[in-house]
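JOB MANIFEST
job_type = single_chain_structure
chain_count = 1
residues = 254
[input]
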Amino acid sequence: MEIRLYMLCYRGEALVASHLEPEAFGHYMATGTKKLTRGSLMFFELDRKRLTGDYFRLHDLESRCVPHPDGSPKRSKYVSIYRVLEHVPVDAILRLHLVTLDGRVLSLDPRKPEDRAAANEYLYQELSPVTPLIASTLDPTRFCAFMTNPEVPLYLPRLFFADLSLDRETGGRLAGYLPYEDPAHIESCLEEMRAKPEKPTKTISRSPSINAFFRTVNRGFYVGDKTALAFFPFPERRALETDHARWWRSAQMG
């Protein structure tokens, strides 16, 4: 059986080998194991040939990830649970898979980040290896470069994050349909950031709520560092409702 490599990348990191294809693996991790705490699941599908370093023990993987005695596939074999993302090159990431609580999978292909009209402010949910909710004046490319710059006192070797919606009502307040836990606090942090233009980021929450997280995603997901960045565009609302209706209904539950 073919061995596939997946990287769990939300509220914890892990490199996992499996005989399951991505959709079956996502369904199993969301519904078929007691190890997962309640919440959204995300994982990257990796190109094993591009994992050329010696950080991960892969040379004997075929002898460790073997089918069960009855011939059924090995669903998960953990390879690493520590500092995984920083040792996975951006070009080794094939796809991002988003899994709902009931195991439905939406797969996103990467592409280069698009240049768009610059916004004055952004809202980012960092996903791995740390998970704060951050307001910033930096667009996604510049934000990732800033957060992974070794010259910055608090930096990360690599970062996975999502660009979240800051849609507004006619009166200027955050849109009521956005399920943010404390919109007034978000507004307060944005105002504080505007008052200090020399500071490009502001931490809103170190442990934000993840309820209905997928409903808040704006452009999509990003993973990279100061030298490389991959962008996984999130489908627009109409496409979610028509092309991915079952996944979207499940995603709105939590």
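[summary]
Residues 25 and 62 are 18 Å apart (CA to CA).
The helical segments are 22-31, 61-64, 140-147, 183-195, 237-242, 245-251.
exit_status = 0
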